[in-house]
Structure formats: structure tokens, C-alpha cells
Amino acid sequence: MRVVVIGGGMAGARLVSDARLRGADITLFGAEPRLPYNRVLLSGVLAGATRASQLATPLPGDVEVRAGVRVTAIDRAARQVVAEDGGRTPYDVCVLATGSEPLVPPVPGIERALPFRTLDDCDRIVAGARTARHAVVIGGGLLGIEAARALAVRGVGVTVVHLAGHLMERQLDAHGGDILATTLAGLGITVRVGVSVAAVEPEGVVLSDGTPIAADLVVASCGVRPVTSLARESGLAVERGVVVDDLLRTEDPHVYAIGECAQHRGVVYGLVGPCWEQAAVLAAHLAGEPDRYRGSRLVTRLKAPGLEVASLGDVHADGETVTFSHPAAGVYRKLVIRDDRLAGAILLGRGDAAGTLTQLYDRQAPLPAGPESLLFPELAAREPAHDPARLPGAATVCHCNAVSKERIRTAWLAGADTAAAIGRETHAGTGCGTCLPAIEALLGSFGAPLTPIAEAG
Fold it and tell me: CA–CA separation, 36 vs 71, rounded Å?
């Protein structure tokens, strides 16, 4: 079977690394002139806490990687992809994994702003931060806040400008957004919400209310949109993304789409977890295994020095709500309960409750009586569900890669006795990295010698 994957991002790289495709003739085209890498860790590079080399994504040696080569057309009749150098590569299966691209607002002077999407972008921002005294970050979503915090860690004064009424409006409610803004202020980051940038000028920016903000560096993080031009020009159905069915297949039975460019049941996912879930389902399908993609449960995590935010599901859904708020401590916890199940949750500040709530959300298990106790599992008299050693085998430990406790134990029994080895065998811990302490705890409970978390970097 000849498989051509167009896109060297995290979805495409995960697909070609799947062991179920061993024996296939695979060619991976990537527009960036470098091997695939983990974009989730870019904010760590920007903050100086992670080396760029630690982002590398190992690929099987038998995969032909054509880095820096763009595909300009898909000849569906001949079943060939056409590269910019004129070369043609035949396929039995073509997979679109073209990802997304930054949204650029139509603002005068916006070309002076640096996007935050790739390693090259990261290099340019770091270079600018070496001499900058103040930076403006346009956009207060997940990546914008991570960029702002990384610049602050480097000693740069930062102002975040966000059009919506509060930060991270998709993942947080207004109260949570306000508490996050207060926390950022305590870290030296100024937040302006409900206002936009009207112009980017050599000496800074001008806001829509006329306020000038002096800045030596402007970073644009205004969201992304799926890259669909190749699919559209190939005559495939495109709405917001490339339309696919439960097999991740377009209307052409030989062409599939996964990741941020794919639209499944009307939804385009912009998170790494769903991308990797789609890659796994497609690998299983191509290997002849009965599997279908039925959508993903959304778990968003922001992890930066002095910041800890997790958002599960639909935090704006109708239903019973249970909340705890301590703005002075930067702590806010909210449960949205519908039909005795967890429909959504916000965890801002200390993450004691994250493990318990994520398991309940993933499994859609009935909530216990007195759900308010779930906000503080560390205070409960019963056994602490957030202790990884006490989790059931089916419980998910690594949410980026959907790796269960039992799968980690199976890998350990097979000889993977360090966090790095577990990562190589199961991919656990190779996403955002927030599950590495849990993996270490599990290895300790299994009887493995503990190794420094940094080894899994």
C-alpha cells in the first residue's frame, strides 16, 4: 500500500509513526524545511525553558520525508500528488494533514507583527525579545497568553490586547477570565479586553479606542484557520475544513483528512488531542481494523510558570453549576452538570481536582452525591482519586495521546521502566508534558526506579 501524507505537522507525523502502518510505502511531505516537531512545547522554547532539539518527533526510518517540499496539486484521476518541483508521487491512499495557518487581522501595519505558530516564528520572537523593553501580544487566547507569559519570563514588559470581553472566552466564563487577568497582572502582564488593535506602528500599537501603547515587539496570536486550499482546488468538499466521515474519508474513497484541516460532523478541532485520536483511528482503518472516529471530548490545558488552567468540555452549557472562587489566590473552580454527568469544568489555579474531574468527564460516569466535594478531592476523607496509583486500569493518564494506566503498565511489564521509555512505547508524556509527574508516580507504584522527569523531555 502506497500512502502519501501531505503535511508534516503533529497529525501527519503521528499517523506515519503508527506501528499498524509498518510495511506500507509511506511518503510524508512537509512545507517547513525541518523534520516534524511538537508544537505544543513551543511556549517552553519561547520562555527559554525548553531546547528546540527537545521538540523533535522521531519518525520510523522507512518513512520517506520530503521536508520543505510543498504539494501543489492532487491528480485524483491518476492518483498522484504533484510537488512544487514538478515531481509526481503515486498513491493508493492520500492523507491531507495540512493543519492550520494564523489568522491575520486586516490592520494597517500588521506586517510588523510576528506570528507565533512555528519554530521559525519562535526564533524571530526570541531575537526581538533580546532587546525589547515592552511587547504587545494581540490575542488573549491560549497561545497568546502562553506567549505573553514566556516573554515576561524573559524580562520583557507585556500588554495583552484581546477583542472579547474576557480572556480565553472559549474555555473560560467571564469570572474565570477576570481571575486569570488578575493573576497575569500579578506576574507583570497588563491585560486590555474588549478592545482591538487599530494599527501597528513602528513605535508600538494604537488601540481602537485611540490609546497608544509603546512597544518594541508585537506578537500576533489572533487564532487560526484550516489550510484547505489544496483540497478545494482538488474538487473536494470544503466548508470550514475538509469534510470527512467517521472513517476520516472525503467523498473520494482514496483521499482522507485528519487534524486541524479536517471537519468531522461539522466540527473542526484545533487541539492536539483530537488530531492524534484521528491519526490513530485512520491508522487502524488502513490496517483493516474496525474503528471509527466519533468525535473528541475537549480538554484544554494551559501550563506556564505561575499559571495553571484546565478547561473541560462545554463550560458555557446549560445545567446545574457548582463553583468556588478565591480571586486573591487566583483560584476558580466550576462544574457544569447535566443529567448527572459532567458537561464541563473550569480549573484555574492549583490543579488538585484536575485528575478526578478529567476521568469523570472522559468516561461520562455518573457523579457522586454531593458533587461539590469534587472541587476539593485533596480534602476528601476517602481515597484520593487524583493519586495515579489508585486509578483504575482504564483511566486515561496522558490526555494528549489517550494513553491509559493499563497501557502504561503493559509497556512497563515489557521493559519500559523510565518515563522516556514509556514515551517511546506509548507516546505518553510526549504532548504537553503535564502528565509526566503521574507517569513517574505510576512507575514508582509498579516498582520501577524513579528517574528524573527531565529525561522524558
Answer: 16
